[in-house]
Specification:
Elements (H helix, E strand, L loop, with lengths): L1 H24 L4 H23 L3 H19 L16 E4 L5 E11 L2 E10 L8 E5 L22 E10 L2 E10 L5 E11 L5 E3 L4 E2 L12 E7 L6 E4 L4 E9 L10 E13 L2 E5 L19 E3 L2 E2 L9
Parallel strand pairs: 9-14
Antiparallel strand pairs: 1-2, 2-3, 3-4, 5-6, 6-7, 7-8, 7-10, 11-12, 12-13, 13-14, 15-16
Helix pairs in contact: 2-3
Length: about 325
Amino acid sequence: MRYKLSLLLLLSVMVLCRVSAQVNSSPISAGALKQLQSKEDTLKDFAFYLTTDSLPEERMIADSVFTRTLVRALQIPFSFYYPFDSVLGVSKKYAPDSSFRIITWNLQFNDYYNRQRGAIQVNTKDGKLKLFPLRDASEFTDHPEDSIRTSKNWIGALYYNIIKKEDKGKSFYTLFGLDPNNAKSTVKWLEVLQFSPQGEPIFGGPFFSYEQDSIPKKPQHRVSLEYKKNARVLMDYVPELDLILIDHLVSENDDTESPWTFVPDGDQEGFKWEKGRWIHINKVFTQKLQDGKAPREQPLFDQPGQQKIPAVKKGN
């Protein structure tokens, strides 16, 4: 018991030291910090209502209050450095170079209608707010894979990763997002974000090339992956390989017209960054084992048809 209490005390001290270091290293003043902490308490409550309230009208009210409170919080000087860690159910992703962050969340109207909300906050030298609200226009397009978007007609997603790549001195940020979609399927999104010379966000572009495929097709402006609800599907960047890996999907009942039946089949495709584009790799892992070389910790048979029986120690 004493050991557990000592360990708990040590962890508490470590957390307090880390928080103190973060606050002391940021330009947020003491007064601004108190305001942000107060706003965070309100945001935490309404983020909870936003995701758990059983009535859609109450979730919509929570979304409205949450949005207004968030904007007021971000107007506090140097709010960019405040992480809002206790606000759960809301994605808060910083760019790898800390030039901006994207805050996104989901509003569920019913089992078959979800829309995402969000904003891009730019890191400014004077701490003043520079914000781009994101308007989800997913429902107004049938072919989102072939269009360039702005913050006003954004393809909504809850972002779970951002990576940065460069080409000819220009920065490109690849976004990995998730859309709960509906009761039957989930959608993951992959697209590139860049900023115009005027500093405005531009989503998408012909960055995903299939020119090296056996049957080439035209470049896509973004990649979507729709699959069966609650299936575990990979679409993410793997630093060790310097690749984006994506699970290859098949229909579990051979119904290729129904994405809500799609599940991983064990193979993975991918993308590799080359000269300002993501080049598609149809099959990332091509290594095959020779016959009889399958990994096996302990053989079940010594000889064909003769089962191996573990030795039993005397006295057992």
